Amino acid sequence: MNNDIDRIVTTPLHHREGQGGGSEISPKAEISPNAKIGKNCKIFPFAYIEDDVVIGDNCIIFPFVSICSGTRMGNNNKIHQGSVIGALPQDFDFRGEKSECIIGNNNIIRENVVINRATHTGGQTVIGNDNVLMEGAHISHDTKVNDSCVFGYGTKIAGDCEIGHGVIFSSSVIENAGTRVGAGAMIQAGTTFSKDVPPYIICNKHSEYGGVNFTMGRSYGVDEKTLKHIANAYRLVYLGNTSLFDAINQIVDQVPDSAEVRNIVDFLRTTKLGVIGKK
After folding, report:
1. What is the pTM for the complete model shown?
2. Is the pLDDT of residue 16 over 70?
3. Are 92 and 110 spatial neighbours (Cβ–Cβ below 8 Å)?
4. Which residues have C-beta within 8 Å of that of residue 97, sequence separation ≥ 6?
5. What is the DSSP letter of 147?
6. What are phi and psi of 127, to 5 degrees?
């Protein structure tokens, strides 16, 4: 890290009641005395942190970051310049209720990312652990993001979405409200979709089935036999001339059981909006 900036960030926080030791804050940052800051955090000039905020240990808050009321942040997060965490929901139903924006551990949130808190009392927008949100990404109110996901440049996630473990969004993706993306899926650049994306597949730029995401499966240790079973399951869904209901029954009857196949079946059974590429 730049030594000149390190010299600026020298004001200890240990004198603030309820704060962890070893944290440092620039005198040019604006932090509410009611905010709770964990141990060994570093907060750079011109950061803005409101009242009802909790930040865990070993977090780095870069210049011009805003962390708004209702944010609950875990440990080891890096929030880069210009990002707004816990922003008011962009929802016409919002009436000023108290709600939360939950950020887990070990997340990297790059420049100009916006994450809205939930709309209604008791609601939560949730970002799990080990996620990377690249420049200009936007996660809207009440969306739930699991762990180890990547959001490419300028990707926009609407409200009330659900995103599984290990999903990759390429750049400039738009996920419309209330949709789900299953674990291990990949969404190609420039895609806009309004239906659910099942687990372990590639959603191409036409919002259609683009094959099984073998690369992700192998990276998570899925064996080749199970990957073939996943591919067979999706042949029944997308290449058979059947309804989704019949395809699900065929998967149960014809494809050998595994945790991954059960995940596919459960996802397909619980879709409310339908799945991409399937009428």
Report:
1. 0.92
2. no
3. no
4. 119, 120, 121
5. S
6. -115, 125
